[in-house]
Design goal:
The chain is mainly alpha-helical. Among the domains are: 277 residues, no CATH class; 135 residues, no CATH class. 57% of the residues lie in helices and 2% in strands. The chain is built from 24 helices and three strands. The protein has a three-stranded mixed sheet with strand order 1-3-2, covered by helices on one side. The two termini are 46 Å apart.
């Protein structure tokens, strides 16, 4: 799983990060030592006053291990204590992480559910589900060899991590400097592991890494002050001092020029001359050893269901047909003369649907977001305190990056959330997609969802560092359907844009399974996408390469969305006039990121409680 190695996709991505407050620490002192030693202490019931205290101790040990095993993720979560370190992608680091995962996975039978409170039982079930999914994946399959790609490759996160770090004090800046100086070692470790993958024949498809050398070159600047790695140091507060350093910014320039740049050049040379020539020409995960089982495990991991690739493929075909019919009806309402393919081409090509400058595009996104904000209380009882903004996708990653993404912030670190919009190739960024995209990435989508989760109280810290993709991305897609209730999609083209985005996620079910389970080529996937969507050619190519690079992740959106819609319909039917949309949404978001089965339990219990009140 790339997320567990060096901040992948799902990631990103994405896909989708947040933090919560830690529960009050157990009164029993936890001994210092290795994970094995600490868990040995937790296993002995006599060391604790009761099972609640022992369970809390287990959760605390695990939360600390999560941060220690991935300092980069700890930074994204706004968790202090590890900001001076990078992840360890070496073989030794992988072995240590897997050994600790096994120790935690072996705790699944330590507690009798019947002896726990309802809240504790839910937490323990989530803990076990997260551990088993991650351990089963990493123990069986060499995910560490697939850490590099042009969409979610770890190299793209290096400047982002530095720019997310606090820089308000001497210790903060000392952490930044330590991370800056640690980049050469990180790149060396990554190169060694990727070389092992080459020897074993476990490498990325060539189309997913072809742009990596150019991305690395864009990270390398001959003028240190213009480097993306210099940005966090450019506007330091006056008066910040670090013992032994008299001119911090001069030190930064020297580190960039003498350490970071040479390391980037060396890694670029490796990617160009050693990795790319050995990258595979195949696309599907099934082409790798044990690839069919690997993909099956990734489906389970990302969707938190036991659906098969065939079931998901058929669901996708059904959803594509349903949405296509809605598109046909809307096209007719608009009065367009021609078939749906002609209409899609019109939407792709007509100049009226595009901005001429990046600034105009960003301004329009900000306007949409600020029109959504005041309407949110009509659909939500609880809103987050953390603000958000709209930013441009960085130049070094824009060409291979999707249309937009959300980057969470942290109240603890004093960092707002950001909705990043891609301004590369403006003729592939139509106006009609902007309302749906803003709703998904900002509010009431990921910013609302993740920020609410970060402000939950009384939740074990380990849950703030879990990311169940089906819940995270299912909510983002479900949010798009709330547009009419928010007063949006009044323009029929914007409504068509929402259908285009829903179609986009339905197509994913077909092409992701097609590529990784049924032997589809890249071109077959592109052709299917093009026939059924008005997305631009550039977007379609980037998306297909994304699915090839990160098998299974794209399945989570539609699976999660359909489950939330199913639960809403169930609640509306059961409660009739007593149904409260604000309360329903608060229940859905009120437990943070959870498996779909837990979400269903939560909603069912809420329905039962509401009916009892009647």
């Amino acid at each position: 799983m790339k997320e567990s190695i060096l901040l992948s996709t799902t990631a990103l991505i994405l896909f989708l990060l947040f933090s919560c407050q830690q529960e009050k620490r157990t009164a029993t002192a936890m001994p210092r030592g290795t994970i094995a030693e600490q868990l040995s202490f937790v296993k002995k019931k006599n060391n604790f006053k009761n099972e609640s205290e022992r369970l809390q101790a287990l959760f605390e040990v695990y939360a600390e291990n999560q941060k220690a095993s991935s300092p980069m993720l700890a930074t994204f979560f706004g968790k202090p204590g590890y900001d001076h370190l990078w992840d360890d992608p070496s073989s030794e680091g992988t072995r240590n992480r897997l050994a600790n995962l096994k120790l935690f996975n072996d705790t699944s039978d330590w507690f009798a559910i019947k002896k726990l409170t309802e809240k504790e039982a839910v937490n323990f079930n989530i803990f076990n589900r997260a551990l088993s999914d991650q351990y089963n994946l990493e123990n069986q399959f060499p995910e560490q060899y697939l850490m590099i790609d042009q969409i979610y490759g770890f190299h793209q996160y290096l400047p982002a991590v530095l720019q997310m770090m606090p820089s308000n004090s001497g210790p903060d800046v000392k952490n930044l400097l330590a991370r800056l100086e640690g980049i050469p070692k990180l790149l060396e470790q990554a190169q060694t592991t990727l070389t092992e993958g080459i020897v074993k024949g476990i490498v990325m498809p060539k189309n997913t890494v072809i742009q990596v050398p150019q991305q690395l070159k864009q990270l390398t600047s001959n003028i240190p002050e213009e480097s993306v790695f210099y940005a966090p140091f450019a506007n330091l507060k006056e008066g910040i001092t670090i013992e032994g350093r008299t001119a911090i910014q001069d030190d930064v320039k020297r580190i960039i020029a003498n350490k970071v740049n040479p390391a980037l050049v060396k890694f670029t040379h490796f990617m160009e001359n050693e990795y790319l020539p050995k990258a595979r020409e195949s696309y599907g995960l099934s082409a790798l050893p044990n690839g069919e089982a690997w993909y099956k495990e990734l489906i389970k991991f990302h969707t938190t269901t036991n659906m098969t690739a065939k079931e998901i493929h058929e669901l996708g075909l059904s959803e594509v047909a349903r949405i296509r019919q809605e598109m046909e009806e809307l096209k007719s309402d608009i009065g367009f003369k021609g078939d749906l393919n002609a209409f899609n081409n019109f939407l792709r090509e007509d100049p009226q649907f595009y901005f001429d400058t990046p600034e105009a595009l960003l301004t329009a996104y900000r306007d949409i977001c600020k029109r959504i904000d005041p309407v949110l209380p009509t659909l939500f009882g609880k809103l987050p305190r953390l603000p958000y903004g709209v930013k441009q996708v960085p130049a070094y990653s824009e060409q291979a990056t999707t249309t937009a993404y959300y980057q969470p912030g942290s109240l603890q670190s004093g960092v707002p959330g950001y909705f990043f919009a891609n301004t590369y190739n403006l003729k592939s960024r139509p106006k009609w997609e902007m309302e749906a995209l803003s709703i998904h990435e900002a509010v009431p989508g990921h910013h609302l969802q993740i920020s609410i989760a970060s402000e939950l109280e009384g939740v074990p810290e380990f849950r703030s560092m879990l990311m169940f993709t089906a819940f995270i991305e299912g909510w983002g897609l479900y949010s798009e359907s709330l547009g009419p209730e928010l007063g949006f999609y009044k323009d029929p083209y914007a409504k068509y844009g929402q259908l285009t985005y829903e179609m986009w996620r339905a197509i994913r079910l077909v092409v992701d399974t097609g590529i990784h389970a049924f032997g589809w080529s890249r071109q077959e996937a592109i052709d299917y996408f093009t026939i059924n969507s008005s997305k631009s050619d550039n977007d379609i190519a980037v998306e297909i390469d994304r699915y090839i690079a990160d098998p299974g992740q794209a399945l989570a959106y539609k699976i999660g969305e359909l489950k939330i819609k199913e639960l809403r319909k169930r609640a509306e039917t059961s409660l009739a006039d007593q149904f409260d949309i604000r309360a329903f949404h608060d229940v859905v978001l009120g437990s943070g990121s959870i498996p779909l089965s837990v979400l269903e339990d939560n909603v069912n219990k809420w329905i039962t409680n509401q009916r009892a009140i009647e």
